[in-house]
Every structure is written in structure tokens, then in C-alpha cells.
């Protein structure tokens, strides 16, 4: 039996790290555009991980909350599978050394966030993502079975004779390209919030994984379902600082011209639409956290973000606006994180699992990252013929990997700023058919460029869905008018 190359994981956020850790005993290569964990959105997550580990809670209740928050558009089997896995995920992370917050009795301290019917957010201060991801990052960096290839971007995937994965082209910081031959690639590239003008995501989150997979023929779904977080700190920074959902869970309230206008603990799509409606009417919207006990010490990361912008979280009203935060759609995968392309898996935010439906429930994303990363590693290792070893050859020597003219970058492609402005106008909190159609038409000639291609896929998906659901709100669908508070 011939030797087969090592699997390659693309991306070093929580999902990619989890996958790499699961593959370590058999060997894998982890490719990341920066240094390990650099630019990973999971490093920026403030809230925590949702898990039914408290008294009076259960995975069934967690699943019900997830289904409701997602406008009943999620897949019940997927929701049940992932919420049932949540307590075990917490146990595994604790065993890996993640220092979650504890109460006076030494039990896990559980927070409350919008859309949850129970206190079930396991957290590490208000910097849970950084704590969990960096802990896993240190673990993976020490594993001899994981080779990390830093500062390499993935240019395209290599297709075999029957459309299966045969490798990937990577580019180093000098611009030199080479081919990594493998028959197993796990995409863990994150989301696409950087395509929008107002986002809490790293500006490098440009939907690269969606573009790579779609060009290779992989199915994508629900790309129009993009979550807007209701409380981005509106101080002119890019990316926008995030005022975590947990602030509202702790008692912070939203005010428009001094008047409270919404139940702050409703799902994010409802609260974001309510904030947007107030802003569109010319009102000033702020988050008032002044009555939250010990707010600066309970939320030190938020306090620091506010200080950097000249604000005091304990004394000032904080200006907010909805900002793109998470992509519910992505590369369609099954329960084993497999895409429709043989040899290609997708994990974390780049994937579309069916967990989130039309609106992600708060603190379900880090949970999904771990569960999908584990599933991918287990499925890759299900092939007993896989052994250690990978090879690299110069790109020009493999004709089949050179992108066709259709996919090559073209002169005249819109700038990132132009794409962000266009997508922000067409695919904001509220959308309409004519504006979406115009965006699709403007982007269509430039789909050889990956950024424009990813934006085109999002706009085209939004245009193809004329009815409002969850985070996708069409003003030309009469039903949406009934859901947006005046």
C-alpha cells in the first residue's frame, strides 16, 4: 500500500487548532497566513461558550433556545448533536488547562446572554476567545506531530482527475508559490465580516475559504445570513470594538435619545433591527452600562476598549450601531465536517453546519468550532491508509493547479474599500431587491478576484431569497415591517 501525504489544515483559529490537535498523533501540516492564532476571530470573542452545565439546565433546553434564536431555520439534528456535546467540550477544555471563571464554591461561573433561557455561558472574564484559543495554540505548538507553516496564504485548491482534492497552492511572504500535495484539506479560514464596512471581525476575514471551496466546486448555503451584532462601539474605529452581549445580560440597557426602546435580551437579529430603525430615524443610540455593578472590573476588556476611545464604561453613555459579527452560512458540511468535494472538510465559521439557522445564538460559535474541528479530525483519520509525509513542488511544474483565466486577478477589479461600501449598502441590516440586483451586476465582471467573488456570492444569495428570515430582512417583504420597532 503506497504512502499518502499528511492532511493539511488551513487556518489557526480555535477550529483549526482543534482539528490539528486531533490529527497530531498521525501528523498534519497547519498553514496559517500570519503567526499561530494571529488574525483569528476566535481570539476576539468576548462572551464565552454556551453549555448546559448548570442546575435546571439541559442540552434539550439549549437546543430549543438555539432553534428559536435561529428563527426555526436550523437543522434540529445538528442542533441536538452540538448542544449535547457542549458539556463534554467544557470538560475537555478544562482538562487542557483553560482557566474558566469560577464562583465562590469553585464551580463554573455561568453568565446569561440574549436568547438564552438559562445562565449557561462558561467564560474567562470578557476575553474568553483569547483565553481558550491561546491555550489551544500553546498546546498545538508543542505537539511534535503538528508542523506549522506560518506566513503562507492559500491561493487555490488543486483538483484531481475526478474533482477530488489533490493539494493546494500556497504563497509565502516573498510572493513565491509552491504546491503542497495532499488528499485531505481542512478549511478553518474563518468568516467574511471584513467584506463589510462596519464589522467586529479582523479586516483579513474576507471569505477566503468560501471562495477557495466554491471555486473547487463545493456547495455553499445561506451566505446571505450574516449576523449583525447590535452593539458595536461607534467611535470610528475599523474593525469596530465589540460591546459584548454579556453587558446586556448583566443589566446594561439601550437608549435612543434617552428612551429605552427594546428588550435587550432578545435574539441579536431583533435587537440589531431595533437599533438600526432608531438610527435611521436620526436618533442617537447608546448603551448605558452605568448601573452594572463593578462593570469595569467585571468587563476589563470592554473597559480597556472604551478607554482607548476616550470613554469610561462605568460613567459614560456608549454610542453603538449594528456591525457585522458572524456568518451563519458558508461551505456546506455534514456531521463529519465533510464538504461536497471529496477530500475537503470545513470547520468553524467558514462552514455551514445548520446549527445557527437564520441567526446565531450568542456563544454558540466557539462551541461549534470545537465540535466541527473534532469531527473533521476523526473523519480524516477514519482512513487507515493515511501515513505521515507531504511534498512540495513549484507551482509551474503542476499545470493542473494553475488557475484558469476565469479565476485570475484582472485589472480594473474593485478595491477592497469599494467592495466593502457596495456590500454594506446592499447587504446591510435591511435589504431590498433593486439594490441587491445592482450589487450583483456590479460585482459580476470581477469574480476572478477572490474578494469580489466572495462578495458576489453573498449578494447573489441575498437576492435569491426574497423573504425575510432571522438576520436576513428584506424591506420588500411586507412581513419585515411588522418585526422592526418604530
Give an overview of the whole structure.
- There is one protein chain.
- The chain has 486 residues and is α/β, with parallel strands linked by helices.
- It has three domains: 8-224 and 328-399, FAD/NAD(P)-binding domain; 231-322, Alpha-Beta Complex (Flavocytochrome C3, Chain A, domain 1), CATH 3.90.700.10; 411-481, Methane Monooxygenase Hydroxylase, Chain G, domain 1 (Up-down Bundle), CATH 1.20.58.
- Helices cover 31% and strands 17% of the residues.
- It has helices at 14-23, 59-69, 76-95, 128-141, 208-215, 245-249, 268-280, 295-298, 300-308, 365-380, 416-426, 433-443, 450-463, 478-481, and strands spanning 8-10, 28-31, 49-50, 110-111, 121-122, 146-149, 152-159, 165-172, 177-181, 185-187, 220-221, 226-233, 253-256, 259-260, 285-288, 318-327, 330-332, 344-346, 351-352, 391-394.
- The strands form five sheets. The chain has a five-stranded parallel β-sheet, with helices on one face. A five-stranded antiparallel β-sheet has the order 12-16-15-13-14, with helices on one face. A four-stranded antiparallel β-sheet has the order 7-8-9-20.
- Helix 1 (14-23) links the parallel strand 1 (8-10) and strand 2 (28-31).
- 55% of the residues are buried.
- Residues 8-366 form the FAD-dependent oxidoreductase 2 FAD-binding domain.
Amino acid at each position: 500500500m503506497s504512502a499518502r501525504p499528511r492532511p493539511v489544515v488551513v487556518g489557526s483559529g480555535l477550529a483549526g487548532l482543534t482539528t490539528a490537535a486531533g490529527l497530531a498523533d498521525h501528523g498534519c501540516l497547519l498553514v496559517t497566513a500570519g503567526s499561530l492564532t494571529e488574525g483569528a476571530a476566535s481570539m476576539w470573542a468576548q462572551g464565552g461558550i454556551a453549555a448546559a452545565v448548570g442546575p435546571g439546565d439541559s442540552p434539550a433546553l439549549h437546543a430549543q433556545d438555539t432553534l428559536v434564536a435561529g428563527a426555526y431555520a436550523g437543522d434540529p439534528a445538528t442542533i441536538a448533536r452540538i448542544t449535547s456535546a457542549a458539556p463534554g467540550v467544557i470538560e475537555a477544555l478544562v482538562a487542557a488547562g483553560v482557566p474558566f471563571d469560577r464562583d465562590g464554591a469553585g464551580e463554573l461561573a455561568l453568565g446569561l446572554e440574549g436568547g438564552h433561557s438559562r445562565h449557561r455561558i462558561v467564560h474567562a472574564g470578557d476575553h474568553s476567545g483569547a483565553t481558550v484559543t491561546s491555550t489551544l495554540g500553546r498546546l498545538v505548538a508543542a505537539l511534535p506531530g503538528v508542523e506549522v507553516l506560518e506566513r503562507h496564504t492559500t491561493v487555490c485548491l488543486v483538483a484531481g482527475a475526478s474533482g477530488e482534492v489533490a493539494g493546494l497552492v500556497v504563497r509565502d511572504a516573498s510572493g513565491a508559490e509552491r504546491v503542497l500535495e495532499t488528499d485531505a484539506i481542512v478549511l478553518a479560514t474563518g468568516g467574511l465580516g471584513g467584506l463589510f464596512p462596519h464589522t467586529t471581525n479582523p479586516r483579513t476575514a474576507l471569505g477566503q475559504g468560501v471562495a477557495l471551496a466554491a471555486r473547487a466546486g463545493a456547495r455553499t448555503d445561506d451566505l446571505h445570513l450574516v449576523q449583525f451584532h447590535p452593539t458595536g462601539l461607534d467611535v470610528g474605529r475599523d474593525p469596530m470594538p465589540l460591546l459584548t452581549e454579556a453587558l446586556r445580560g448583566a443589566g446594561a440597557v439601550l437608549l435612543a435619545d434617552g428612551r429605552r426602546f427594546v428588550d435587550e435580551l432578545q435574539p441579536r437579529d431583533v435587537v440589531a433591527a431595533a437599533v438600526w430603525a432608531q438610527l435611521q430615524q436620526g436618533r442617537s443610540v447608546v448603551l448605558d452600562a452605568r448601573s452594572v455593578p463593578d462593570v469595569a472590573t467585571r468587563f476589563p476588556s470592554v473597559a480597556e476598549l472604551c478607554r482607548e476611545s476616550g470613554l469610561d464604561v462605568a460613567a459614560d453613555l456608549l454610542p453603538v450601531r449594528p456591525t457585522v459579527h458572524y456568518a451563519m452560512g458558508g461551505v456546506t458540511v455534514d456531521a463529519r465536517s465533510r464538504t461536497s468535494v471529496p477530500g475537503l472538510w470545513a470547520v468553524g465559521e467558514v462552514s455551514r453546519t445548520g446549527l445557527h439557522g437564520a441567526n446565531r445564538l450568542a456563544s454558540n460559535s466557539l462551541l461549534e468550532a470545537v465540535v466541527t474541528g473534532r469531527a473533521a479530525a476523526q473523519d480524516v483519520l477514519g482512513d487507515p491508509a493515511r501515513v505521515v509525509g507531504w511534498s512540495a513542488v513549484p507551482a509551474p511544474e503542476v499545470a493542473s493547479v494553475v488557475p484558469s483565466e476565469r479565476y485570475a486577478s484582472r485589472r480594473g477589479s474593485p478595491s477592497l474599500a469599494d467592495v466593502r461600501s457596495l456590500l454594506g449598502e446592499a447587504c446591510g441590516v435591511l435589504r431590498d431587491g433593486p439594490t441587491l440586483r445592482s450589487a450583483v451586476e456590479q460585482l459580476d465582471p470581477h469574480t476572478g478576484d477572490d474578494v469580489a467573488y466572495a462578495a458576489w456570492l453573498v449578494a447573489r444569495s441575498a437576492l435569491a431569497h426574497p423573504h425575510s428570515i432571522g438576520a436576513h430582512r428584506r424591506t420588500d417583504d411586507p412581513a419585515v415591517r411588522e418585526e422592526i420597532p418604530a
